[in-house]
Amino acid sequence: MPVTLVSMPWQSLEGPSLPLGILRAVATRAGLPKPEIYPAYLRWAEFLMARTGEEINPHDYRGIAEGGIFDGVGDWVFAGVLHRDPGFGVSGLTAHAAARGIDVTQALRMREHAADFIDLAVKEILETEPTIVGFSTTFMQNVPSLAAAQRLKELAPEVTVVFGGGNCDGPMGAALHRNFRFVDFVVSGEAEDAFPALLRALGGDGDLAAVPGLVWRDSGDVQRRNQQGTAISPGRLAIPDFADYYERLAVSPAAAYVEPCLFLETARGCWWGEKHHCTFCGLNGTAMAFRALPADAVLDQVTTLVKRHQVLDIWMVDNIIDNAFFTSVLPRLAELDWDLRIHYEVKANLKPADLAALHAGHVRQIQPGIESLVSSVLGLMDKGVSGTHNVRTLRDGEATGLTVIWNWLYGFPGETPSAYEPVLSQLPALVHLQPPIGVARICLERFSPHFDNPALGFPERHPAAHYQYLYALSEEELTDLVYMFDTPHAGLSVEQAAPLRDRCDSWLADYNDSWLHRHDDGDAIVIEDRRKGWPERDHRIEGVWRAAYLELENGHTVQGLHRRLAAQAHDVAPASLTAWVAELKRNGLVFEESNRFVTLAVPSDPVKMEKA
Amino acid sequence: MYELPPDQLRGAGLAGLTFTRVRLTEPLRPGDGLEDLRLLVAATSHVVRLTWTLDGQPDLPVDRLCHLIPPVSGTGSAARAYAKEWSSLHRYGCFHYRQGPGFVIVKDLRPGADARRMRIEDEDASGFLRMAVTSHAGELDPATRDMLADAETFGLVLRAGDSHLVLPHRIRHFPIPAWAA
């Protein structure tokens, strides 16, 4: 029973589809024929280049893939094909984008080529002579996948169409199956068990009713929904089979624009979310239970795939690193004399030794989920960290030479401008630390506590406005189908958020030219201030104040600092300490939040660059 | 900031000086032989914050050297002009290599030529890495010595008499943001 697995735009061009690589591996492990993989997203990039003489190139693809998610721009490119109406949603989303300040010029140009591409892609899929075609759909892959599936059914009604992926989790999968009849089956939830079981059942060896998470139609054409399976145990996660993707990329005209990367998964779920689900986050869907690969399996996966594909960049898709990895995995990665460049998501309360372990283990970029520097807002999120924790992470990440990527989120029910003011006034002092890559109002996401519990502050919600330009469905159906929802604004108003945006824009503009470097020779600490917006000067801190400064690197209240110094037999009057800390703050050498102070100078000089 | 003569820095072992600021008390002459260029390749690789002055003008077009730490000035007008252009073209990591198991990836984004990304495999990779840690042909086995001419043709190696130098530096420290290099 030949199977072809398809990944439509807007999967990242930099690597193969991880979900399809996993499905291919589990099918093989189960003794089933190896599925073909059709990377339609790469073909789309190539198609656009050829059609437009490279006027539309992978940079434009990337612009939509990375920047269009919250407005469905990538889905919208294919909406005209799905609805057999080239004008479907054009005026609506164009106006929506204009109101949001989003440029959809290239997306509009891409729409002109979408129908021809779908014809080409379906033709090439059918050339693999499949009896089953599986589409993996996450975020903006829904409409392109539906457009291709619809065309495929028109040309080959005998082919079975299966959908799976993040867009099929929970009620979304049933809604997708209910509203698009050309989709024969939907698999909701993790597919390691479901996919082989489905292939066997379709081959006459098993019962569709026993396939975990399967949505299907019975003989009476009535939709049936099997219960989703339990979370896959870590021992059963497979090394993905990326087939010939990299060889294919190497000869692709898109290769000149792409630096290949491995997308790997070493853990699923979120150990923090199991205890304290961040109120805005829906990314784990119905699978919050945290499971991590054993250390041997992580090393096996990394070394096998790096050797096989000769790729040194690794993007771990885990939502949070396993704490055990700091002692079990990272030291073993550190032993590899390979110039790896690894990305991991981490928790923000890491200590310098943890960051050093990450760096030694070839991690070069972290995403610590900083989200804000305002403690009261972090409390509303249930993040479990304070503003000073986050500043310390920024400082120590900079010192370790790690890229720290983060967004500043606002719009939380209960937040007030007055809580932001003391922090905003100090942002100029942080200009030498890595700024947020964006400032954004939170969106109501399915599966998040904000979504599941209207009492948390978002009782009124509707499918996000852009979905009406992607689907011709009622609000009731969209409510089951989609991931993002619009709500009346909570927390800061647009006007109240303007100072935050302005300060962060300045921060971003001045970061590369700002340094606050500290050198400690054992007798004195010298802090060289070369930050934009601050007078160029050197501060010398010695004697008991040196001890106080080193203590303050950990973050303390004045009272706490006094206790720590007393424990070291330093006798400093509290009033003197208060005055000294106030002086440091006036000079922008400490950050204060909720009466806690943390130092800002960095003990090393990492290389800062403009993004290429 | 340390102040050192070039020879002392050469002997210091640059691996321990990462992110350290060092001012060279004597100018470098990267146009004479390969030893001063070798120092610059090593300092760039270990991100030693080097402050140095250019003496003379290398024969090489400046865009071939602009991946290396640029001079802050020159000892004469021609050297000053060369130094100024070097500094203006410099971008950290724009010509580097990365070592993997059985392969090497070279990335060349220097201005003045098309961007290149080369993958060197198997025996060629081990030969390249051997060239990178040696300075004279006599230190190479015959097979690797035979590769020198090809490596020079591809712009990966400079040769002067019996000496050779792998021109891209090994990237030991990624910049912020890490994917900018």
Oligomer: heterodimer
Beta-strand level of the residues of chain B, as a percent range?
15-25%
Number of domains of chain B: 2
| Cα distance spanning the termini of chain B | 26 Å
Helix content of chain B: 25-40%
Radius of gyration based on Cα positions of chain B:
16 Å
Largest interface: A-B, 31 and 31 residues
Helix content of chain A: 25-40%
> On the 0-100 scale, what is the average pLDDT of chain A?
96
Overall geometric form of chain B: globular
Instruction: Return Rg of chain A in Å.
Output: 26 Å
Provide the structure class of chain A.
alpha/beta
Contiguous helical run count of chain B: 5
Measure the end-to-end span of chain A.
46 Å
How many strands in all of chain A? 24
Q: Structurally, how many domains make up the residues of chain A?
A: 3
Strand order of the largest sheet of chain A: 2-1-3-4-5-6-7
Low-confidence stretches of chain B: none
Mean pLDDT of chain B, to the nearest integer, reads: 95
How many beta strands in the DSSP annotation of chain B? 11
Q: What does the largest sheet of chain B look like?
A: 4 strands, mixed
Keywords (chain A): Iron, Iron-sulfur, Metal-binding, S-adenosyl-L-methionine
GO molecular function (chain A): catalytic activity; cobalamin binding; iron-sulfur cluster binding; metal ion binding
Domain B12-binding (chain A): 73-209
Protein name (chain A): Ribosomal peptide maturation radical SAM protein 1
